[in-house]
Amino acid sequence: MAAVGPGDGRERAMDPTADKPRRRLRPLLCAVALMTAGACRAQGPAEETARPAFRDVTATHVPQAPELHALDIALADFDHDGDLDAALAVEGAPNRLYLNDGQGRYIWREGAFGKRPHDTEHVRAADFDRDGHVDLVFVAEDDRTHQFFLGRGDGSFVDASERLPGRSVGNGLAVGDVNGDRLPDIVVGNSGISGEKGEQGGGNFLWLNDPRRPGWFIDATSTHLPAIRNQAQSVALADIDGDHDLDMIVATEAPPTRLLVNDGRGRFTEASEKLQQLTPLETREAHVLDANGDQRPDILLLNLTSNAGKWEKDPQARLLVQDASGRFVDETAQRLPANRFSSWGGAVMDVNRDGHPDLLIGAIEVPGFKPLQLRAYINDGTGRFRDVTTSALPDTVSGRSWSMAVGDVNRDGIDDLFIGGWGTQLRLLFGER
Q1: Backbone φ, ψ for residue 27 (5° rounding)
Q2: Per-residue pLDDT tens for 75-93?
Q3: Beta strands in 179-239 (DSSP E)
Q4: 8 SS3 class
Q5: Residue 208 pLDDT more than 90?
Q6: 3-state secondary structure (DSSP) of residue 176
């Protein structure tokens, strides 16, 4: 299995009418998707919440494809009918478009993104060309073929991949207005660059949306990003330092995780020394959230012991809590349940609708690459999380869970959860009242 990397984790459905980055903390965390009272407990589902938080509707609402490698999902209204459709980043097969019937039942529109298979890792949605229709960008790993599609507004797309400035071994992807011109820009997290030999990591890409020709891109990598080589697996954009622009977290499979601070014009400098990194990690996904309600963003890192190989590193999920000085302190031991499973993806969402961000954590047993039950962690309101998997989730929600997407797909006013999977069925959970 090729090394694969999830996206920025858990993204809310894209709002095609929004043309600004989210400037205040709460909306920003909703956009980027962006935590056990008492002592941490050993791995294993615990038994709390008053009622199940989700209903598994996969069998009746999602096309059945149990061998598909659907690694990431972008939710947006691609056909202007008022509901959330789904674009899937697929490894080893053509990417897929699932259209919503208005009740959260999905129909596969075959061939929407062509018939050629790619090694696609991530997908993001935005109105890049300012025509009122949602567009899509995909990044790929082994075949280094990134794709860009312009939406027509009727559920069909035009391939405009020639507008992307480069090829790479891409494993991370984020979209946001990094330079304040009200146009969405693209960040690609790379673990190698096209044409390099003996790659031990690659520089990331920053592609600025051209204000003179929205939907075309200017490669600003050399002028706006520090010359860092990394093995990126995930990129998250969020206002980390409270100055109302989008900073960058780059999670990597070879340490360290990087923090890059924006000067407000889309030029980034490294500030990774602010991240307390107690142990070497193979991180696959980074999420930004206000875990403890102090109005300062914190960072969740989801980690592997290895990429489905032998035991190499501690896969414990890590929570870095920002203090008043802007330093991120590892408070995992006091705040998260202990785990020995590996996690390729997860989501931040308010599972019990108490106003505090909770966590859904994908779980896979490594060594062995064995499918496990998805985990649900409920926040007590102060950033301490308890495992409520047994009572919150149906026992059908087991697999090799990958990146996830959050949005109200059946229009009942409650968020639902799409769960990507590697060689296991993509799952859809309806949030319950």
Answers
A1: -65, -35
A2: 999 999 999 999 999 999 9
A3: 185-193, 205-209, 217-219, 232-238
A4: coil
A5: yes
A6: strand
